[in-house]
Amino acid sequence: MGWISGIIGGGVGAMIAGPLGAVIGAAIGANMGGGQQLQQRGGVRLNQNEQRQALFFTAAFSMVGKLAKADGRVCPDEIAAVEKISKEALGMDEQTRQFAINIFTQAKNSAEPFSSYARQFGELFAHDQQLCNFMMSFLFQVAMADGELHPQEEVMLVEAQAAFRLPESLYQSLRSRYVGQQSSSISLQKHYENLGVASDASNAEIKKAYRKKAAEFHPDKIEGKGLPPEFIKFANDQLAEINASYEAVMSSRK
Hints:
single chain
């Protein structure tokens, strides 16, 4: 049984507190036509890893809902961007995509600020910086879906960095990677930035940075930690980009 079937069926096994629990309950209510609170019910129960997957997924689309409304309203382009990410970047089936939209909508319309969702995610996952780094990368990609990082979006991303307890150097590395390079032709400097190294780094330093980055996005290493299977395609795409940057940098040194 996957987490999505269990959670929609109510088999979470225990009440989930905080803003993420409220969003899950409201999303289930929207899906089932009633019920606003998530609590233990009969039937199948999610195991610990499936609960973590459900929470990761809920936090992701709750924060995306707030990012989409960063300028005060959600425009059609932003909705289309979320649809595109759901279908292409994450490869969701229809049931999961609809649940993601329900979460997105409930969070977007909630009085809770972005920081509340980021803070609860940090409380749950900050001990695993690999998953926090992954979530931060996902949020940057969503924020840049329209080709521009709006000032209020950046405020939210900085809040996420603090809530996830990520170092400033990692945030700046991700910002450099995602912001300001929207052409299909990626410069050699951008490849260095993707790897998180300076252009004058030694071959040994580049190899070490590459191995660290590759481990951060290797699906086999993060799925068992609570990464929802719907995010595996995103992880594979990120890993492919890191591999391409490593190959480009090392080829340029021959």
